[in-house]
Design brief:
The chain is an alpha/beta fold. The protein has a five-stranded parallel sheet. Bound molecules: 1-O-phosphono-beta-D-fructofuranose and manganese (II) ion.
C-alpha cells in the first residue's frame, strides 16, 4: 500500500474526497449516505418478515442493525476516523491490517477518515461495514439488503432479455454454417452487449431503477460512437490464438474467466456471451468470479448467479428458457464454474493481488483471457489514482497481469486511459 498523497516512481496519488466538488467528494458526501439510508429503509420495511420468522429476537436484531447503520452513516457524514472491524467474518484481519498499513505512514489514528483517505478504500469499507452490522445481529446475517433492487433489475429488463436470447438462438441454430467473418460479427455484437450491460448498475444510480428497456442488439449502432477505446480485435485474436490444433474445436479452445459486476440485466448479457463463447468453440470453459457478500448495491453473489439461471429456465419464453437450461447444464458439466474469492470484496488495488491473494492470482493465471466487467474493477485494475488520461493501460496496471486481460467498462468515475 502506497502513501496516498504523493506521486512516487511515476505513480500518482489516490483519488479522494479531499478535493471539494470532485466526483469522489460528491460520492462520499451525497451518494453513499443515500445508499445507506435506502439500506436502513429496506431493513425497516422488512420488520414484519423478521418478526414472523424470528419473533422478538428478529425485531431486536432489526433494531440493532439499524442503529449500527445509522451510526455508520453519521461517521461518514461527519468525517470520523475509520474504525477497525469487530465481527467474526473470515476477512476481518486482512481488512484491519489494511487499515493499520494506511495509518502507519500518517502515524495517527485520526488520519484515516472518510474524506481524507483514498476514495476506493472508504467506499469498499462502507459495504464491508454493512456486512459487519448484519453479522453482529445473527438473524440478519444472511439478509441481502440489496436483493430487491437486483431482482427488480432482472424483471424490468425482460423485453431486452427476450430479444437477446432470441438473437442467441438464431446464432446457435446456424452455428455450424457460419463463416469466420460471420462468427466475428456475432462475437463483436455480443461482446459489446456485455459492455453496455454495465450501464445497468445500481450503485451509480444510488438504487434508482436502471434496467435495460430496449433491445440491446438494436442499440449497438447508436452506442458505437460512445466507445472511447476499442480493443475487441485483440480480444478476438487472443481467443483464436488460444485454440490449439486438435480434433474438435470445443475440446482445444482456451479458458475464459469473467470477473463479474452487476446482477440483473448485466449478468444475463455475461451469461449469453459465455454461452456463445462455448457454443462457437471460442472457449472450452468459462470461470465466473462473483462477490462473497452483497457489494456495491448490485454486484453478483452466488445466490444472484443461481437465481438468475433458475429464473431464466422458468421464463415463459422459449429461447430464454432454452438458454437457462443450457446454462444449468454447463454448470453441472463443469464447463462453467463459479468462484467468489474474498479478495474481490476487499479494498486492494489489483497490483497487490499477487502478494495479498496468491491463490487467486494463480487461478487467474490458468485462464487464456480474463474479462473484467465494470467500473469498480477498472478502478481497482488501475489503482483509482490521479492518472493522466493519455497514460497507457499497461502502465496503470503496475505489473498486474496473470493472463491476457480486457476491461469491459462503462465510464462512471474519473480514471480513464489510452486517450492519447
Ligand atoms: O462497478 P460498477 O457497477 O460498474 O460501478 C460502480 C460504481 O457505481 O460505484 C462507484 C461510485 O460509487 C463507481 O466506481 C461506479 O460509479
Ligand atoms: Mn457494480
Amino acid at each position: 500500500m502506497m502513501a496516498a498523497d504523493q506521486t512516487v516512481d511515476g505513480v500518482p496519488p489516490s483519488l479522494s474526497a479531499k478535493v471539494v466538488g470532485s466526483f469522489a467528494y460528491l460520492t462520499i458526501r451525497d451518494r453513499l449516505p443515500t445508499i445507506l439510508t435506502k439500506v436502513i429503509d429496506t431493513i425497516h420495511r422488512n420488520k414484519n418478515k423478521f418478526f414472523e420468522e424470528y419473533g422478538k429476537e428478529g425485531i431486536e436484531a432489526e433494531k440493532q442493525t439499524i442503529a449500527l447503520l445509522s451510526k455508520l452513516r453519521n461517521e461518514l457524514q461527519t468525517d470520523k476516523p475509520v474504525l477497525e472491524l469487530t465481527d467474526g467474518l473470515q476477512d476481518r484481519e486482512p481488512w484491519n491490517q489494511y487499515l493499520q498499513r494506511h495509518q502507519r505512514p500518517q502515524g495517527d489514528q485520526e488520519s484515516v477518515s472518510w474524506f481524507k483517505s483514498p476514495w476506493l478504500y472508504v467506499e469498499c469499507y462502507m459495504y464491508r461495514r454493512i456486512q459487519e452490522a448484519l453479522w453482529l445481529n445473527p438473524p440478519m446475517s444472511d439478509f441481502d439488503v440489496f436483493n430487491e433492487g437486483k431482482t427488480q433489475s432482472f424483471f424490468e429488463s425482460q423485453q431486452a432479455v427476450m430479444a437477446l436470447c432470441t438473437y442467441l438462438e438464431g446464432v446457435n441454430k446456424n452455428m455450424e454454417e457460419l463463416s469466420k467473418n460471420q462468427l466475428l460479427e456475432h462475437f463483436n455484437k455480443l461482446l459489446k452487449v456485455s459492455l453496455w450491460g454495465n450501464k445497468c448498475d445500481l450503485s451509480i444510480s444510488a438504487g434508482q431503477d436502471n434496467s435495460q428497456k430496449n433491445s440491446p442488439i438494436e442499440s449497438l449502432t447508436s452506442l458505437q460512437p460512445f466507445i472511447l477505446v476499442d480493443d475487441s480485435n485483440m480480444v478476438w485474436s487472443t481467443l483464436i490464438s488460444a485454440q490449439r490444433q486438435g480434433q474438435s474445436a470445443k475440446a482445444t479452445a482456451g479458458r475464459v474467466d469473467i470477473v463479474l459486476d452487476n446482477a440483473g440485466f448485466e449478468l444475463v448479457t455475461d451469461l449469453v456471451f459465455a454461452e456463445f463463447l462455448v457454443n462457437s468453440g471460442l472457449a472450452r470453459e468459462v470461470h465466473f468470479h462473483g462477490k462473497s457478500f452483497p457489494w456495491f448495491v448490485s454486484d453478483v453473489t452466488a445466490n444472484d448467479f443461481q437465481w438468475t439461471i433458475r429464473q431464466t429456465m422458468a421464463a415463459n419464453h422459449k429461447w430464454m428458457s432454452k438458454s437457462g437450461y443450457q446454462w444449468q447444464s454447463y454448470v453441472k458439466e463443469g464447463v462453467w464454474a463459479y468462484h467468489d474469492h474474498p479478495f474481490w470484496t476487499q479494498p486492494h488495488e489489483f497490483c497487490d493481488m499477487a502478494a495479498d491473494a496468491p491463490d487467486l492470482y494463480a487461478t487467474l493465471q490458468g485462464a487464456d483471457l480474463v474479462l473484467f466487467k465494470g467500473d469498480l474493477n477498472y478502478r481497482k485494475l488501475t489503482g483509482d489514482r490521479e492518472w493522466d488520461h493519455t497514460v497507457g493501460f499497461d502502465t496503470a496496471l503496475q505489473g498486474f497481469g496473470p493472463a491476457p486481460l480486457c476491461s469491459l467498462r462503462t465510464l462512471k468515475a474519473n480514471v480513464q486511459f489510452e486517450l492519447g
